Amino acid sequence: MAHNWDDLRLFLAVAREQSLSGAGKLVRLDPATLGRRVARLEKALEVVLFVKSPQGYALTEAGAQLLERAELAEQAMRKATADVGGQSDQLTGQIRIGAPDGSANFLLPQVCARIAGDHPGLDIQIVALPRVFNLSRREADMAIAVSAPEAGRLTVQKISDYHLHLAASGAYLAAHGPIESVASLKEHRIVGYIADMIFDRELDYLADLGLGQVALGSNSVSVQGHMIQQGGGVGVVHDFALPFLPGVQRILTQEVSLKRAFYLIRHVDDQKNHRLSRFADILSSALRNEVLLLEAKA
């Protein structure tokens, strides 16, 4: 049975936001009206497109099939508009990124601001949480992680390596004297993660250095960086964060140099989603370049 583009546009919004309230903000309709439009589309197609629950609107198998076709129609519509108006293909709608707070604080703000500038119709949400995101529950459209997951229906794309070093503020070093060896760190206050809140083994930097006792701890790497900046002690800092922490300097660089990687994690069902795939490519490239730029300034 035929359906028009406006119906598909509303369907796409609900499918992507998985809620009437979120979709309503994108298409500028109140949730009740949008709900009636979705129900009308389901009646016209004689299929159930969504499973409704307190958690939101989840696509049925029929809904997933329509999503694929609707996205093709959306691409064709955008291309036709661009061909007529001479405008470049623009990303639109809302995309939510889950990220550990290191990348969320020091990389994503400027990267996403630039992407949003290139795509004015795009709404980007950054959810900064010190834990692994559950994409199966659709907590986010994609997530940045510091290790590649080995289970789940997920796709993994390496974004970039990044580097970390021990660091301290100039004021701390002036007050406590130069630090000449890893062994001597036991005589200093250590800043680091709260041990029982380390959500990924890749973040357990201090254990590898034999430094289990943390005098100033936080589950946030951003908070740790500011503790170090305030003269709280010595800790591990991302090289890309150093330009944002004036007065903090690397120490023992010949003895301690850590390398980790960022990965972009997506749900396997989103592989055919042209919009998310294009955004993922833009985001990965921009993050890779930003890491290189900031590490060069460290």
TrEMBL record:
<dbReference type="InterPro" id="IPR000847">
    <property type="entry name" value="LysR_HTH_N"/>
</dbReference>
<dbReference type="Pfam" id="PF00126">
    <property type="entry name" value="HTH_1"/>
</dbReference>
<dbReference type="InterPro" id="IPR036390">
    <property type="entry name" value="WH_DNA-bd_sf"/>
</dbReference>
<dbReference type="InterPro" id="IPR036388">
    <property type="entry name" value="WH-like_DNA-bd_sf"/>
</dbReference>
<dbReference type="GO" id="GO:0006351">
    <property type="term" value="P:DNA-templated transcription"/>
</dbReference>
<dbReference type="InterPro" id="IPR005119">
    <property type="entry name" value="LysR_subst-bd"/>
</dbReference>
<protein>
    <submittedName>
        <fullName>LysR family transcriptional regulator</fullName>
    </submittedName>
</protein>
<dbReference type="Pfam" id="PF03466">
    <property type="entry name" value="LysR_substrate"/>
</dbReference>
<feature type="domain" description="HTH lysR-type">
    <location>
        <begin position="3"/>
        <end position="60"/>
    </location>
</feature>
<keyword id="KW-0805">Transcription regulation</keyword>
<keyword id="KW-0238">DNA-binding</keyword>
<dbReference type="GO" id="GO:0043565">
    <property type="term" value="F:sequence-specific DNA binding"/>
</dbReference>
<dbReference type="GO" id="GO:0003700">
    <property type="term" value="F:DNA-binding transcription factor activity"/>
</dbReference>
<comment type="similarity">
    <text>Belongs to the LysR transcriptional regulatory family.</text>
</comment>
<keyword id="KW-0804">Transcription</keyword>
<dbReference type="InterPro" id="IPR058163">
    <property type="entry name" value="LysR-type_TF_proteobact-type"/>
</dbReference>
